[in-house]
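Encode chain A's predicted structure.
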Amino acid sequence: MFDAKYIKSRTSMTGAEQKIYAILLRGKIDHYVVVSAVVTRDTGPETYVFLCDSEGEVLNWLELDGSFKGELNHSRALNGYLNCLLDNDYPGIDNL
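Encoded structure for chain A:
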């Protein structure tokens, strides 16, 4: 039901390694997320998922499910986000 299509990678101005994904619902693009991994001086390693547009520009800095601290792991964060969509019967961005 849900899948993610890799779009591109980039490094932010703060040094975060970011990967942009299209989130697919029933094979069609529903929305985009950026998975951002960085080591911060205050909290150490963290990997966060944010809602973004197709170019990777963050639309909302609210950390989405799947985000976590303690490790740099894009796959773990993305899989956590997708599992949350499945667990919560996510209806699609247009149906919220």
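Helices lie at 74-87.
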